[in-house]
Structure formats: C-alpha cells, structure tokens
Amino acid sequence: METTLLRVIYLANEKGRKVVGPSYISSTLRIPKSTAHKMLLKLAESGFGVYIPKKGFILNEIGVKEGLKALKKHRLIECLLEELGISYEHICVEATKIESFVSQELLRVIEERYRGRRFCPCGKEIPEVEL
Ligand SMILES: [Zn+2]
To answer: 57 is in which domain, residue-wise?
Structure first.
C-alpha cells in the first residue's frame, strides 16, 4: 500500500495540494478515514515525510523521490496491462491493485520492455527517474 500512498500524495502535490490529510486519502483510495490516518502516520514513521496532527502529511525530499518512482512504476505496469489486453477503463484500477506487490526483479523486466516509451496508455508522461 505504501507505493500507492506515495503515488497518490505525489500527484496531490503536483495538483497544488501540499498537505494531504486522511480525508483526501480516504476518498481517493476509498478506504475508511481511520485507516487512511494510520497509513499516513506509518508513512511518516518510515521516513517519507512528516504528519502534522489535524492537518495532514507533507512529503520530505525522500518522499518526493519515492513518490515519483511510484508514479513511474504505476505507469509502466499500465503499459504491461495494456499489452495483456486489459481494457482502458480498467487499466488504472488494475495497476493500483498490483503496484504494491511487484518485485524489483519483475519491475526491472517491465522497465526494460518499455524502455524509451514516454507515455502510459492514458497518455500521461512516464517519469524519467531511475527505479
Ligand atoms: Zn496511466
């Protein structure tokens, strides 16, 4: 879940939301607010940022970097799912379901396969960060 969480927070930052609270995570990932709260606390404990009580989570430098990597991972997985024939409207949801469980080894293979590809199936840019 950490991968998904970092990606969602990174995207929220990109959209201008620098502090991400449990409500936002709860509605974006469709999970209970209490679960979202616990996940954000754990993310802070893991060293990806700080959690300010009653406000929300702010990514630190490591968190931003990992968020960008998570985004690349998600979009590469989407490329694979497209090739496997998953329909467009399900690609993002399916990628979200598996992104936290993909091993480094599998990720390396997927990255190699789509090397040089600039956009995911939904037309979003695949970050150039090293995984
Ligand atoms: Zn996409």
So the answer is: 2-64
